Amino acid sequence: MSTAGDTSTPQMPPLAHEYLDHLRFERRLAAGTIANYQRDLADLAGFAASADDPRRALAVGQLTSNDVRRFLASLHSKGMTPKAISRLLSGWRGYFHFALKQGVGHANPCDGVRAPKAEKRLPRTLSPDEAVRLLTFADDSLAGVRDRAAFELLYSCGLRVAELVALNLDSIDYTSREIRVLGKGNKTRIVPVGVPAIQAVRLWLARRPVPKNPGETALFLGAQGKRISASVLQTRIKMWAIKQGIDVNVHPHMLRHSFASHVLQSSQNLRAVQEMMGHASIASTQVYTHLDFQHLAKVYDSSHPRAKKT
Question: Staple partner for 115: which of 43, 86, 133, 264, CB 3.0–4.6 Å?
Fold first, then answer.
């Protein structure tokens, strides 16, 4: 509705220009950010001018929450994404907060207004066959043995790559087949470890080189004899996925998603998956129930004679 850099837009009330100056000189925001705020405010003034009651034209200080909701609904109906609407709403909210400090208006009409929810994108997972293919590459070099052990733990335990990198030599109990993981918020959790992962780690330990620092306790070392970095693992897993013919953009977190999805499909135990993943809220884990339903829906569609319309 407006163009960046058009500071003479007649619809823009003087207070809007004061707010832009506040952002520019007091908060010292970048020029591009200022331009975005200016477009947002021009749009807001344009909406206000198009109100049903002509006496309210330009009366931004008199807008209500219902007005704001109507404006946002109009933008949404025209195809603006929920993310863009959320950013727009945040900009408007900041402007009205500034206006109240200047004694203009009696309430922030953006308070209590929410942007439409963005469609939740389900995480991409590997199929069980793809996961096995990724983990069974043939390379007995030092780096290959290390990579296989690292990838096995990612998939076997549903680890974040940062958690894997932080593992120490004493993190795994090989007798009970359990691993002690330091997760987000410095919270420790105990996760079972599969036999293939235990075997892969034992092979790595038998060949683990002498670290550069004799006191280094990291389970996995990089080429320089120091604790391996997450970026190295990300590069290595992409390389192996390509070599193994897996035609998706594989990254370490995909193995974590795959772990959760595959365990949930087999056990139907959402709480157990939550504990093993280290999710503080069950809501974080529930996304994998959607993945499971997708799996069931595909089976249904492919087998039930009444599943699809003719």
Answer: 86
Longest dimension (CA), the chain: 82
Answer for the pair 95, 16: CB distance below 8 angstroms, yes or no. Answer: yes
> 253: number of CA atoms within 13 Å, CB side?
4
Active site annotation includes 236: no
Task: Determine the 3-state secondary structure of 107 from DSSP.
Answer: coil
Q: What is the pLDDT of residues 173-183, one digit of tens each?
A: 999 999 999 98
**Active-site residue, selected from the candidate residues 160, 236, 257, 262:** 160
**pTM attached to this predicted model:** 0.58
Which three-class secondary structure state does DSSP give residue 218?
Answer: strand
C-alpha–C-alpha distance, residues 233 and 235, integer Å: 5
Task: Look up 279 and say whether it is catalytic.
Answer: yes
Give yes or no: 256 in active site.
Answer: yes
What is the distance of C-alpha 274 from the center of its chain? 17
* Residue pLDDT, tens place only, 32-86: 999 999 999 988 888 877 655 544 444 566 788 888 998 898 888 888 888 889 9
Give yes or no: 202 in active site: no
Residue 220: both structure tokens together? 């996995």
Is 101 noted as a catalytic residue in this protein?
A: no
Q: Is the pLDDT of residue 113 over 60?
A: yes
